[in-house]
Design brief:
The chain has 10 helices and 7 strands. The chain is an alpha/beta fold.
C-alpha cells in the first residue's frame, strides 16, 4: 500500500454481516443434479459460516460475499456443472466486480453466464454496498475483460459447456470481494497479516476439501497466487497426489495477457499435457 492505515483497536472490528437474497427459498435442483453437487454446496455453506466470523478493518471498507447474495445463480452453476468427479480444477483468486460479484459464477462474464451456460437465479444485495460498485445481478451487462478472455478460450476449444465441464471445474480460492472507501479493489494478498492469515486459513481448508470431494488430479492456478496458495494448502494438509501448475492470468493489468492470451494459454496447456481435456465432445 502506498500509505499506511492507522491501527484500529480490536473492539472496533465487526464480523461480516449476512447478505439477504431477494428470495429466501433456493431454486429447485436442476435435472442432472447429483449428490456431489449437494455435497459441494454444503462445503460452501460451511465456508460462508466460517467467513462470517472474520473481522476486517481499515483499509477494508466494503466486503461482498456473492455466495450469499447471489446464492441462486451460484447454486445453479454448481448443480449444472459440478455433478461428477473432475480431473482438473481451474482456480482463480477471488471475484471481479463485474463478474462473479454480480452473478455468483467464477470469471462471470455476463454473456457466457446467461447465454452459454444458461445460468439463472435471483440476486440480492450485500449488507453494505458501495455506490460505485452496485450489485445489479443478472442485469449487469458491463463486460469483464478477464472473464471474457477466459470463457472465450474454453468455448473456442470445447464449443459446449457440457464438453468443457466434463473434465474440469472452475472456482475461486476466496469468494470475497474487498474494497477501500474509494471503491478501489483490495486483493487477498494485499490484506494486512492480521486479516489475511485467518482468511487464508479458512480458504486453504476449503480448497483441500473441494479437491478431495471432486477427486481432482491437477489444479491449474489462474495466475501465480492461486498456484502458490494451493501448493501451500495441500502441503499443510498432507495431500501429495495432486499436481499443481499455473497458466497466465487473463487480467488486462498484465501487459503480456494483452498480446494474444488465448494462444499463450493454449501453448501452456499443451506443454502441461492438459490440452487433451479441451476438445469438443
Amino acid at each position: 500500500m502506498a500509505t499506511k492505515a492507522k491501527r484500529q483497536k480490536t473492539t472496533n472490528q465487526k464480523p461480516i454481516p449476512s447478505a439477504t437474497p431477494i428470495l429466501s427459498t433456493p431454486p429447485a435442483a436442476t435435472p442432472g443434479s447429483s449428490q456431489m453437487a449437494e455435497d459441494f454446496l454444503k462445503l460452501t455453506d460451511a465456508l460462508c459460516t466460517d467467513l462470517r466470523q472474520l473481522k476486517f478493518v481499515d483499509p477494508v471498507a466494503y466486503v461482498y460475499n456473492p455466495l450469499e447474495y447471489a446464492k441462486e445463480p451460484h447454486e445453479d452453476y454448481v448443480r449444472k456443472f459440478c455433478n461428477s468427479p473432475k480431473e482438473v480444477l481451474l482456480m482463480g483468486m477471488n471475484p471481479g466486480p463485474f463478474g462473479m460479484a454480480q452473478n455468483g459464477v467464477p470469471f462471470g462474464e455476463y454473456d457466457f453466464v446467461i447465454n452459454w451456460m444458461k445460468i439463472t437465479g435471483n440476486v440480492g444485495k450485500p449488507p453494505k454496498e458501495h455506490p460505485k460498485r452496485q450489485i445489479i445481478g443478472m442485469d449487469c451487462q458491463r463486460s469483464e475483460v478477464s472473464g471474457n478472455r477466459f470463457w472465450t478460450l474454453w468455448k473456442s476449444l470445447c464449443q459446449t459447456p457440457e464438453a468443457f465441464f466434463s473434465h474440469t471445474f472452475v472456482y475461486n480460492y476466496c469468494p470475497l470481494v474487498f474494497m477501500m472507501e474509494s471503491s478501489k479493489n483490495i486483493t487477498p494478498p494485499m490484506l494486512k497479516a492480521n486479516m489475511r492469515d485467518p482468511l487464508m486459513n479458512i480458504c486453504d481448508d476449503f480448497i483441500c476439501k473441494m479437491i478431495k470431494l471432486l477427486g481432482i488430479k491437477v489444479v491449474v492456478g489462474i495466475g501465480k497466487f492461486a498456484e502458490q496458495r494451493t501448493q501451500k494448502a495441500l502441503k499443510n494438509a498432507g495431500i501429495e497426489d495432486v499436481k499443481v501448475v499455473s497458466i497466465m492470468h487473463p487480467s488486462p493489468i498484465n501487459p503480456a495477457a494483452n498480446k494474444g492470451w488465448n494462444q499463450i494459454v493454449i501453448k501452456q496447456l499443451t506443454e502441461l499435457d492438459l490440452i487433451q481435456y479441451y476438445k469438443p465432445s
